[in-house]
Amino acid sequence: MKFWRLPLDAAAHSIPVGELHIIKDRCKGCGFCIEFCPNGVLKEGPEFNRKGYHPPQVIKQGECVNCNLCEIICPEFAIYSVLKEYKELTAEDIAGSSR
Length: 99
Description:
- By secondary structure, this protein is α+β, with helices and mostly antiparallel strands.
- The chain has helices at 32-36, 69-73, 91-96, and strands at 14-22, 42-44, 56-58, 79-88.
- The longest helix is centred in the last third of the chain and has 6 residues, at 91-96.
């Protein structure tokens, strides 16, 4: 949804900010977490784990909205998100939502 201005009740809304944790040795490199992340927070990492796969790497930690899609989609339970804080809704967030 695209807004042309900040809603009047913006103070009543907040954006959750999550912190991602990756258990690298559990990862089998399927890439589901990278593909399904709505904010593009993850990318394939350059290093190998014990299984010989490339686990994901967090590239935009502050962009995680704690939606838990990566947790849900991971077949090996190698990634999880923890709610860190809530961020106030701003005009920049509204303008950025039309991606």
